[in-house]
Design a protein that fits this description.
Blueprint (H helix, E strand, L loop, with lengths): L1 H23 L2 H12 L13 H21 L3 H24 L17 H20 L10 H24 L15 H5 L9 E10 L2 E7 L9 E11 L19 H4 L5 E6 L7 H4 L2 H10 L3 E6 L3 H11 L5 E3 L2 H7 L5 E6 L2 E7 L18 H4 L4 E5 L2 E3 L1 H8 L4 E7 L2 H11 L5 E7 L6
Parallel strand pairs: 4-5, 5-6, 9-12
Antiparallel strand pairs: 1-2, 1-3, 4-7, 7-8, 9-10, 11-12
Helix pairs in contact: 1-3, 1-5, 2-3, 3-4, 3-6, 4-5
Length: 442
């Protein structure tokens, strides 16, 4: 029994320290996962959601500290009872997620290691067995050092864990396990290799045949049945390849500009998943960042999930001129653990990424040429129409300076452009349509 307890002690202690440290490296990310668990669709405890970050820090610090306590043999009774309570709770949570298919990733190892719900549950069951061995054999858990040294180590582990959690919250995770880490290319992260495994999906077709319901299962092909179709249900048997970057986009109200912006050099992207919840300390720094970026020939844009009214109001309050584009809130929370956060992109490659506390640390050497807008870069390949008549960029620019335009729409939508190019036998990459105000005397 003594040997079994020693082996369990080492395994459980190391696993709790590793698992806890990975989440301690990114407590904000773990708080997002807790919010998912607290949501109405999972545990239906929305009253806990505002406290997710506090709970996150407490849980991950406690997890690391318990692992250290177990290894050094500090207060064995308290440590083992705490480990048992924690692992019973996690085992219930992972079983609930797996059985009811509520949360696809438990977040046990943050973004460092993704486990399926059933893999997470299996891991917790094994840990539960090991903790039970420790529980029944706790008399064999002896301190590694003397009483004073053990107490000092225990206290230091607690203080250092709290300090580390504070540090990464005020800056960014020390180790970035996500697809948006510095050096990664977002465009490449979104691509799917041609030889990537495809998902295996089972289709269950329901038909009414002579008054009786008949169920036929296929791999997707429509079955030949002499009866009335009732419905179809699908079930994923085997997941296909999932690219590292999902749900990322840069969109205006009318078109998707992701490809365009990810091809730009010297691009600064200000990320705020919610302008309504943005940190005022960070918001107040964006004006000087904007001025520095423009002075050094960087193109600067914003990405948010907030609506148009919030964007305009925010720019007015803080004196900003750059455009805000739309992106999924969950994706933006993944891009950078800061609201706001700032990225420097060069043709889709992340060169720099900082927390709003560290905006002053951004290095923005003066670029070669002032970045051109899409219209300026492609002015010879854009179709300009004014009240249905072909025009030029210069004529449209002159119109914009006087109050004669009732409607102006610019698009690079591929479907629209394909239709235009087929009709005109052309190769336009953009289309601007201008409608003038009608004379009231007409």
């Amino acid at each position: 029994m003594k040997i079994l307890v020693s082996i369990s002690r080492i395994l459980v202690g190391i696993l709790f320290i590793i698992s806890g440290f990975i989440k301690l490296n990114d407590p904000l990310g773990f708080s997002y996962k807790l919010q998912e668990y607290f949501s109405a669709d999972v545990l239906n405890m929305p009253f806990f959601e505002p406290y997710a970050l506090i709970i996150s820090v407490f849980v991950v610090v406690f997890e690391v500290v318990l692992g250290v306590f177990l290894i050094i043999g500090y207060k064995p009774k308290f440590t083992v009872w705490s480990l048992l309570g924690m692992i019973v709770f996690f085992t219930f949570l992972t079983f609930y997620s797996a059985y009811f298919d509520k949360v696809r990733d438990c977040g046990c190892f943050g973004d460092a290691l993704k486990l399926t719900p059933w893999e997470s549950f299996t891991k917790d069951v094994i840990l539960l067995v090991l903790v039970l061995i420790l529980f029944f054999g706790k008399k064999h858990i002896k301190p590694v050092f003397g009483r004073l040294q053990t107490t000092v180590f225990a206290l230091l582990s607690f203080i250092l864990s709290l300090w580390f959690a504070y540090h990464v919250l005020m800056h960014l995770p020390l180790i970035d396990f996500r697809a948006y880490k510095i050096g990664n290319n977002i465009t490449e992260g979104m691509s799917i290799p041609e030889d990537a495994p495809k998902p295996v999906i089972e289709y269950s077709w329901k038909f009414n045949v002579n008054g009786e319901e008949k169920l036929i299962t296929t791999n997707g092909s429509y079955p030949s049945v002499d009866g009335d179709f009732v419905g179809v249900e699908t079930k994923v048997i085997e997941e296909g390849y999932q690219p590292p970057v999902v749900d990322f986009s840069i969109e205006s109200e009318e078109e998707n500009l992701t490809e365009y912006f990810l091809s730009q050099e010297n691009l600064i992207v200000v990320v705020s998943y919610s302008l309504e919840k943005i940190e005022q300390g960070g918001a107040s720094k964006l004006k000087s960042l904007q001025d520095q970026a423009i002075e050094n020939n960087y193109l600067i844009i914003g990405l948010t999930a907030s609506g148009e009214a919030a964007k305009q109001n925010f720019n007015n309050i803080y004196g900003l001129d750059f455009e805000w584009y739309l992106c999924d809130e969950k994706a933006l929370k993944t891009v950078v653990r800061s609201n706001p956060g700032v990225l420097e992109l060069d043709k889709g490659t992340i060169k720099q990424k900082v927390h709003w506390n560290d905006i002053e640390d951004l290095k923005l050497p003066k670029g070669g040429n002032k970045p051109l807008s899409f219209e300026e870069r492609n002015k010879d390949n854009i179709l300009y129409l004014v009240d249905g008549e072909v025009s030029t960029k210069e004529e449209v620019d002159a119109l914009e300076k006087i109050d004669t335009i009732s409607k102006l729409r610019f698009t690079i939508d591929e479907n629209v452009l394909d239709s235009l190019n087929k009709a005109r036998n052309s190769n336009y990459v953009g289309f601007m349509n201008v409608e003038l105000k009608k004379d009231s005397s007409d």
